[in-house]
Each structure stands twice: as C-alpha cells, then as structure tokens.
Amino acid sequence: MKVRAWLGGLAVALVAAGAGVYFFRGEIATRLVERTAQTAMQTSLVEELPDGLHAAFCGTGSPLPDRTRAGPCLAIIAGPHTFVFDAGDGASETLSLMGIQQQNIEALYLTHLHSDHIDGLDTVALQHWASGSARQPLNVVGPTGTARVVGGLNEAYAIDQGYRLTHHGPEVMPPTGAGMRAQEFAVPLNDGEEIELRNADGVRIVAFRVDHAPTDAVGYRVEYAGRSIVISGDTSRSTSLVDSARGADLLVHEAISPRLDAIMHQAAMNSGRENIGAIFHDILDYHTSPEDAGRVAQEAGVDALVLTHFLPQTPIPGLTHTFVQAAKSTYDGPVFAARDGDVISLPRAGGMHRSHHLRF
Ligand SMILES: [Zn+2]
Ligand SMILES: [Zn+2]
Predict the structure, then answer these.
(1) DSSP codes of every residue in 28-80
(2) How far is Cα 252 from Cα 346, in angstroms, rounded to an integer?
(3) Ligand 2 mean position, distance from CA 68 (Å)
(4) Of 13-17, 19-23, 266-270, 308-312, minimum mean pLDDT range
(5) Of 288, 278, 232, 235, nearest to 258 (Cα)?
(6) How far is the CA of 52 from the centre of ligand 2 (A)?
(7) Which positions are annotated as active-site residues?
C-alpha cells in the first residue's frame, strides 16, 4: 500500500515537473539563447584554426533536393585569409553556422555558372555587406559570363539595398559596399594551361579548364604555407585536373554514383516522367563516378581525396559509404565523404586532420 502511494506520488511529481517544463519551455529556450548568442557573435573559425590551409565545407549538395546539404560551397582558409569557391543555395547560412565571418571574404571564385553554383551568391553578398559594414562590394571572380550574372543580381537586389540603407543609415550599411563586383577571366583552352588569379601574401590561386561541356568550367589550385588543395569543380574525368592536382595535399572532387543515378532514372521512367528520366541519363556525361575520381587522385598522386557535390542526393547516411568504397577501389590513399560543416586542415607544421564545425 505504501509502495503504491509512493509510486502515485512520484507519478504526480513527474507530471507536475513535466507540466512545469512545458509551461516554462519558452523561458528555458530564451535563457539558452541568451547563453549561445554571445558565443555565436564572438565565434570566428579563422581565429580558432592553426596557421595553415583549411578546406571548410559550406555546401556539399547538388541541384537535387537534400535538406542535409547546402548547394556547392567550399571556403578555403589560408592563414588569416578567407576565400569561398561557389555559393549554392544555403551556402551563406552554412558559412554563418560554421562561424566563418562573411564580411572577411576576400574573393568568391566561381567554377562555372550552372545555377546550383551561383544561386546562393545573393545572400553571401548581403552578409558580406551587412555583417561588417563593408565599404567595398563582394569580389566575385569567375569565367566569362560572371559579370552578366553579377550585374543581374545587383539589379535584382537594388530595391532591397535602398531599403536597408534607409533603415540603418550609411554608417551601418555603407552604400559603396552593397552587392558584388565581377572579375572575369577566359577559361584556358588547353590541358596543362593555368591562369594565375592571385599571388599575394603567400597565397597563390590558379584556375585550369575541366571537362563540363557545354559549360565553360574550371577547377582551382590553392597554395599556402607549403600546402595545397585542388578543387575539381564540376567535371567529367579530366586529364587537365590530373595535371594541376599533381602532388597536392588534398583533392576535393565531385562525384556521381552511376548505380544510384540508374535507380533514379528508372523510378522517373516508371512514373511516366520522361523529362526527369532524360536528365538522370544525361548528367552521367558531365560528372565523374567515384571510381574515376579515385583514378584521378591516384594518377595525380595526391595525399587524400574528399568527395563532395553528391549526385544523386544522399538523404540516407549509408549512401555516402558506397561513394567512398567505390573511390577506394581505384585509389590507395584516404577517402572522405564531406558533410556540411566539415573542415579538413593542413597545418603549416604538417599533417592533416578533420573536425566538424556546424554549431547551432
Ligand atoms: Zn553542380
Ligand atoms: Zn555544373
């Protein structure tokens, strides 16, 4: 009897406690925000990382819907310098969640002008302007056509820029810092040709053509402190990429799974959606299987390979494992499947390590 009464009392207490938590949940959540907001405002990934070259994955998805991955985006942190390569949908939000201060982006490089690589540019430009009262527009460097994209986006956001200037005044939102400024280059015509886009403060960035026809597309090589990262951009298996990736510490390569792509193609055809089926058929021609990405890494003799831009989408965690296994069948070195928030660090002192920085 006593036990039953005790249990009854406990149940009442638990229900009361639960009701208390339920009743005060808004207050509890607000107190939590009070704590985390201060940390978020002070967070700067660049200051936390050791001197060296770092690949920070601010978007590892593709045009296909996947709520776990932003569109293509890779931030390269070279000592105190921040550069971003491509800005797909959700890139700016992921940069913020990683503690990468967008007002400090020195330049945003585009691999090509496919929509999934540029449809987050507008928000990065806004954050570049708003979060640090930038007095210069965001520098956007890319292949021929970049000025047209940038001009169109600047025009699309001109009304918004006017509103923000009126809301906050020119000290907070300097009019000269709004939007983007384009710097175009012609994609090198031949394999083995590189165009040097930056060689200052110990950071060297070159672009080289890759095979993503009919798109004019490039990959990039970034060097700092004796370390190097090569970015494939979107490409089918590319010999120019092998040339430019030779001896790099890290190769960041896109990947499409022919087997998963065939499943999506068949599902579309079975549903009578021939147009979608045709797209899944066509994309195999201008992307790279993980086996071929492994072959590129092996031929170039890079120290490690990281796969990104997963096609099709990978909403089930085990799916990226199939990409890694396939790449390992053709490449002897370590292979990683990038997630949003991952950082692969190449410290000046040597070595390589991975960490995860998706904080809130
Ligand atoms: Zn793409
Ligand atoms: Zn593309």
Answers:
(1) HHHHHHHHHHHHHHH--HHHHSPSEEEEEEEE---SS--TT-PSSEEEEEETT
(2) 13
(3) 20
(4) 13-17
(5) 288
(6) 29
(7) 116
Q: Which ligand is nearest to the CA of 63?
A: 1
133-149 in b/e burial notation, b at 16+ Cβ within 10 A?
ebeebbbbbbbebbeeb
* Average confidence (pLDDT) over 309-320: 90
The answer, yes or no, to whether residue 1 has pLDDT greater than 60, is no
Ligand 2 centre distance from Cα of residue 33 (Å): 39
Contact 257, 244 (CB under 8 A): no
pLDDT of residue 7: 66
Q: Which ligand is nearest to the CA of 235?
A: 2
pLDDT at residue number 158: 97
Q: 311: which 2 tokens?
A: 């096609």
Measured distance between the N- and C-terminal CA atoms of the chain, rounded to whole angstroms: 49
Q: Among residues of the chain, what percentage have pLDDT more than 90? A: 78
Encode pLDDT of 240-249 as tens digits.
999 999 999 9
